[in-house]
Specification:
GO terms for molecular function: GTPase activator activity. The protein has about 575 residues and is an alpha+beta fold. Among the domains are: about 180 residues, no CATH class; about 110 residues, Rossmann fold (3-Layer(aba) Sandwich); about 70 residues, Arc Repressor Mutant, subunit A (Orthogonal Bundle). About 45% of the residues lie in helices and about 20% in strands. It has a nine-stranded antiparallel sheet with strand order 3-4-5-6-2-1-9-8-7. A hairpin with a 3-residue loop joins strand 7 and strand 8. The relative contact order is 0.07.
């Protein structure tokens, strides 16, 4: 329901229902007509909808209703129920033929609820008019009273509830009305059906109750049935002296009817829009979450076993021989093995490297690319520095490029550890590294030296005193990262880091999405090769489909496959075995 009029922007707002609510009437002289509709607008208001400089309008009092400030402005209307009447002093009390237009300001959302006879926007007028005609002609329930749904993508979808109002002067002693809610979102309208049905029925019951009291009072004073029987041969409409067009305010004897309807319709739009909200559904846990849960469960299990062993040691200590009290107990094996294998250690007191972008600025683009290539490929990354805090900070930043299950850290060691034990290793400068490791293309070494006077402020360290005193030398047995295109994910990471329009937080989210994308490819490859045992030719075709047929991408997928959770692997294996088991039973 959007048009090109610059002065009106209907149905494009947050926290409110994207709809128009209208009261319609089937006039015996004119057919289906719209009496009163409420729409939601952003400022500025459309011309004629409560503008202060329009003739025939006066401002009424302000009132508070349900959190909506009602700043109502009366506008003289000639509704479809009655004939046009001229008056120099407009207002609902001057004539039953007129009803006011209202504007309510929602303080919370700065949205205006505008009620008048017709929408001023041509496209909205056409949509409401068509919905009105259909609701009181072809789209009706059996018995002509009750709710019904109809509509299409072009003209919107409509919730319509038709009903009768008692009128002692009308043909059949009743008039036919409908309340309609028009919306372009079919699913939202269907989901709102129970809410709309209950609230609109409440409005209808109140109108019918008021009209019934007036009808009974009129019938008691002057029964119309007997009078009509006595004048059976007189033309029907002529005998009613032109009262066929009695207004709804007259039928209900309620001069504040339109103000009440405006309040009810405005509340309906706001309440129905706020009761259904969009929520982020996380779905199944990610692989990182599963791995973290498994590691936590392992740690708790090992801690329990260690507590049990400690209790046994205390029992034995009661019968130890003399001189045994001075012996030291060994450290907790569960704790030490978990820290070394899982890479979980206390975070550094001071974060030296703020982010991957910061590290790239400090190391320089070529050195960072070489380092990142080795990290993604699963090669061993060795940092040598006297500053333990710096090494831990570097590992904390670099590990964000890998799935949690692929990270094995020994933060700081007094001797070299083999690559199968860790892919991140921190060493003090005097610790020797074997020659075959230094010459290997499967390892990269970052040596942190004290900066010379000529290079006291390397690039990226001007504003960081903790790094300005260092210089970083990145070496590898094979400069492979500089010669090759590299894995696709590395190129995308570098593109995000070099894009200064992206904040650090946005880059972090981008990295999470990239890891999840490639972990999904890993899952497909694992299922295809390890579970289904497909031939190499089919595997190569699959890699082409995944966009990972290059050598570096294949190596990355194989390494990341080691980071899959035990839960996922066991789930796949169980789904493969279950059909076989069921067939064997048969």
């Amino acid at each position: 329901m959007e048009g090109g009029d610059e002065n009106i922007r209907p149905l494009a707002f947050p926290s409110t229902m994207n709809a128009i609510v209208a009261l319609c009437h089937f006039c015996e002289l004119h057919g289906p007509r719209t009496l009163f509709c409420t729409e939601v607008l952003h400022a500025p208001l459309p011309q004629g909808a409560g503008s202060g400089d329009s003739p025939g309008q006066v401002e009424q009092a302000e009132e508070e209703e349900g959190g909506i400030q009602m700043n109502s402005r009366v506008r003289a209307h000639s509704p479809a129920e009655g004939a046009s009447t001229e008056s120099s002093s407009p207002g609902p009390k001057k004539s039953d033929m007129w009803h006011p237009g209202y504007i309510s300001h929602d303080k919370e959302t700065s949205i205006k609820y505008v009620s008048h006879q017709h929408p001023n926007h041509p496209q909205l007028f056409s949509i409401v008019r068509q919905a009105c005609v259909r609701s009181l002609s072809c789209e009706v329930c059996p018995g002509r009273e009750g709710p019904i749904f109809f509509g299409d993508e072009q003209h919107g979808f409509v919730f319509s509830h038709t009903f009768f109002i008692k009128d002692s002067l009308a043909r059949g002693f009743q008039r036919w009305y409908s309340i309609i809610a028009i919306m372009m979102d079919r699913i939202y309208l269907i989901n709102s059906w129970p809410f709309l049905l209950g609230k609109i029925r409440g409005i209808i019951n109140e109108l019918q109750g008021k009209a019934l009291k007036v009808f009974e009072a009129e019938q008691f004073g002057c029964p119309q049935r007997a009078q009509r029987m006595n004048t059976a041969f007189t033309p029907f409409l002529h005998q009613r002296n032109g009262n066929a067009a009695r207004s709804l305010t007259s039928l209900t004897s309620d001069d504040n009817l339109w103000a009440c309807l405006h309040t009810s319709f405005a509340w309906l739009l706001k309440a129905c829009g706020s009761r259904l909200t969009e929520k982020l559904l996380e779905g199944a846990p990610t692989e990182d979450t599963l791995v973290q849960m498994e590691k936590l469960a392992d740690l708790e299990e090992e801690s329990e076993s260690w507590d049990n062993s400690e209790a046994e040691e205390e029992e034995k200590a009661a019968v130890l021989p003399e001189g045994a009290e001075g012996r030291e107990l060994t450290s907790c094996p569960a704790e030490s093995s978990f820290l070394s294998a899982c890479g979980s250690w206390q975070p550094p007191k001071l974060s030296v490297f703020k982010s991957l972008r910061h590290m790239r600025q400090v190391l320089g683009a070529p050195s960072f690319r070489m380092l990142a290539w080795h990290v993604l490929m699963g090669n061993q990354v060795i940092w040598k520095s006297r500053d333990v805090n710096l090494v831990q900070s570097a590992f904390e930043v670099l590990r964000t490029m890998l799935p949690v299950g692929c990270v094995r850290i020994i933060p700081y060691s007094s001797q070299y550890e083999e690559a199968y034990r860790c892919n991140f290793l921190g060493l003090s400068p005097p610790v020797p590294i074997p020659a075959h490791v230094l010459a290997s293309e499967f390892a990269v070494v970052v040596e942190v030296h004290t900066a010379t006077r000529s290079n006291l402020h390397p690039a990226g360290c001007e504003d960081d005193p903790s790094l300005s005193k260092y210089e970083f030398v990145v070496t590898s047995g094979s400069p492979v990262a500089a010669d090759r295109v590299g894995p696709t994910i590395l190129n995308k990471i570098e593109a995000a880091l070099t894009n200064q329009n992206l904040s650090v937080d946005v880059v972090d989210q981008c990295l999470i999405c990239l890891k999840e994308e490639w972990m999904n490819k890993v899952k497909v490859l694992f299922k295809f090769t390890k579970v289904d045992s497909r031939p190499k030719e089919d595997t190569q075709k699959l890699l082409s489909v995944l966009g990972a047929s290059e050598e570096d991408n294949v190596k990355l997928l194989k390494f990341w496959m080691t980071g899959l959770s035990k839960t996922y692997k066991s789930h796949l294996m169980s789904t493969v075995r279950s059909p076989t088991a069921s067939e064997s039973r048969n």
